[in-house]
Structure formats: structure tokens, C-alpha cells
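Question (not urgent): is this output format expected?
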Amino acid sequence: MGTLCKLWRNGAVRGGVIVLAVLVVLAAAAPWLGTFDPAAMDPSYVSVPAGSAGLVTLPDGRELQHTFWMGSDNFGRDIWSRVLYGTRISLVVGIFTAAAAIVFGCLLGMLAGYFRAVDAVLMRIMDGLMAIPAVLLAITLVAVLGASLPTVILAIAMPEVPRVTRLVRALVMGLRDEPFVEAARALATSNAVILWRDILPNALAPLIVQGTFIAASAVLTEAILSFLGLGLPADVPTWGNIMAEGRVLFSQAPGNVLFPALFLVPTVLAINLLGDGLRDVLDPKFSKRV
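Got this back:
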């Protein structure tokens, strides 16, 4: 409870949590808050301005009095509903990308840091991956494996694995010769138990902080890939897809690009704020200044 109270007293953590909580509520309540089916098209309401209202025809033939709070795109789809459903995609990509990078990077980093024979080979592979620009590697993987949500998550997580591996490797190398690890070896404790019970808990705080920065980067990278047409299929409501479709008529309907961006920017900023606050509280080098 003491750590949680200390975290909540940190302004960056508090601000990031509040913004992310609002986004999670909007994403979870998208079917109820969304005023229209995000995939439904009505040719009668193409690129209408924000606040326009009219009688729209639903896919099942029913007519509905509808207000386009954020306008509509060049296919007559409701921007507000698409932005809400795009929040779901962005949060899922951020969370699962961070989780995948942390899990694989942690496993490889512990192996490289604890076993000297593995270190030389494994870290040269990681160096090779780090030499490739992250966005370029993600584009290549999506092009080879095909555009789908799991593929996009894998493509964005892959360039982050070497960074997590290097972080965990450095932490493990600093801990493997500590007296408590030597004592565990003297008691004939297996290496797997030592890594899981004695070393991993000491690396959790930096990993949590690193995970928040990976999540923020993943949300932004997914938007970039979708904007370039290299992410999820164009019919999937993501912030990048909405902005990519909106740029065609930007001079007539700038809101089609600006409204998704107004969700994207606070999301990335909130996750980064959360990461900064967690670092300030959990990292001993920074916690002394708080």
C-alpha cells in the first residue's frame, strides 16, 4: 500500500492513469457511446461537417435520425464511432506489444546475462536486429506475414525485443555474482529457480517502466503503419486508417485527420507520463529526488 500511495502522489503517474482510465472507459463503452455502426456507409452523407444531422439508412433498411458529432468520411462513415472503436485497437496493440516484447526480451536477456556461453551468440543476433530501423523492420514483417492484428503486434514487438534483452542482460550480469545468488548456488539450487526466484524480482521495476515506453511507441507505430497503408486493412477503424482516408479531402474536411490525432496525442503522452512517473518512484536513482 505504501508504494501505491507513493505512486499516486506522483503527478505524472496520476495524470497518466486518469487519461488512460478515460480512454479505457471510452473503448469499453464504444458500442453504446458510438452513435452509429463504424463500418456502415451512407452515400447521402459523404464528408459532412462536424455536428451535421440527418436521417440515415441502416444496413438492415431501417432509418435513423443521426448526428455526426465529428462529421463523416469520404465513404459516409461516422468519424466519432470510428474513433471510439479505434481506441480499442490502439490500446490492444499497445498492451499486447509491450507484453510480448517484455516476455521474449526478459527470457533472452536472462539467458544472455546468466550464461556466458550463450551471451556472445545471442547478443550478436540482437545487435543485428537493432541495426535495422524499427519501422522498416515492422513494415517488412507485415508485408511478409500479411496484415492482421496479431501480425501487426508481432511486427511492432520484434524491434523492441533486443532493447529489452539488453536491459535485462545488464541487470542479470550485475546480480549473478551477488552473495544471495552465490548462496543459492551453494545450496544446489537449479539455475532456473535462481533466475525465477532470486533474479527476476529484482528486474521487475525497470521492466515495468520499459513496458510503458514500449506501449507508447507501439500505439504511435501502429498509427504510422496504418497511415501508410501497411498496417491493418483499410476497413478496420484505427486512428491511422481514419487519418489516411481523411487526408484525401483534408482541405474540405480537416476534422477527419484532426479528430483521430486529438485522441492519438493524449494517449501517447499519457503512457509516457505514466512511464516517467513509474521511473521516478521505482528507480532508486530517481526516487531519492522525489
